[in-house]
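Give me the 3D structure for NADH-quinone oxidoreductase subunit D.
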Amino acid sequence: MTVGVGAGAAHLGVDRVVDLGPLHPAAHGAYRLRLAVSGPADDPVITSATPLVGHLHRGAEKLFEVRDYRQILALANRHDWLAAFCNEMAVAMAVERMLGMTVPDRASWLRTAFCELNRALALVVFLAPVAEAGGRGPRHVAARDGLVRARESVQRVLEEAAGGRIHFMANRVGGLREDVPAGWRDGVRAALDVVARGLDAARSVTVSDGDFRHRHRGLGVLTTGAALRLGVTGPAGRAAGVDLDLRRDDPGPAHAELGVTPRLGTRGDALDRVECMLDDADQALRLVRSCLDRLPPGPVNLRLPKAVKPPEGSVYVWTEAPLGVTGVHLVSRGDRTPWRLKLRTPSFNNVQALSPLLVGCRVADLPTVLASFAVVVGDIDR
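Predicted structure for NADH-quinone oxidoreductase subunit D (382 residues):
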């Protein structure tokens, strides 16, 4: 983090720009926070915060409109690389709904297992710096290393099934590209054990640690009203008391049978957000195990015509991605390419909540608050 300070910064009420870097042409993205601060120069307090986004503007939505329905799935997972499978599945589901398709049962259960593995992967990535920031002792280093091992174990089994480490490209219109390899379920169960150990270590140095709870309680409060007004979803929204989880409220066939019980926060602060991320990760492990135990036999895709042409009309599909609601509004004119494809993505929507939740925070607490509020910058600049 670098701080650009204007002239007269030693005085009160100076406008400062905090850049979250590195701002390098090869970096995956950048956003800036414009902070107005007041109070003592050695311990200022934030009085207003404005996220400044759109530095790269990848133009993902327009790229969808010049590729056919088979090709667009290659674009669907690149703006949020920590929710790659969930994103491509949402686009595939939108096309399938317009075509009136029902994917095979095995594909539906495997999709659910992949989504929950993707959720666990994303959350351990965000929890690793939170665990390490709690201190520099052996327990904190062990917790960070445990979460790194957890991430690698999940990425390994996803790569074995899909062939890609980051951009999985496992979905296709009508199901999945191919079935999982022999012995894959045993590998997943072993990976889940690694993740469970990593989460236990992370919990011991975060929400189960008295010092951590004291430091994070009351920091970066997002009220339920503000979260509802801004449409904040996912762990950040549930930490603020927004009782919404599409896996429970609008489930697919597999989630409807598994049952999801999300944790709701009561304070909407940094501590609640960390607790909700840990709870989501724990629940993801339980759901994956249930999917593996109940995975039915059969095909994983449907036979498609050479040219996929949904009928004229529109459809909206949403799903619960790791950081919140991902929605796809697809409009077709009966051609081989979408006429319009609009994305509703969690990071782009949630980042605006930084404006209310940072007000009143000390500048010294800014890294702690931001670490508890997970966003993917590529999704902001989609």
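Residues 60-380 form a domain with the Cytochrome-c3 Hydrogenase; chain B fold (CATH 1.10.645.10). Let me know if you want a second pass.
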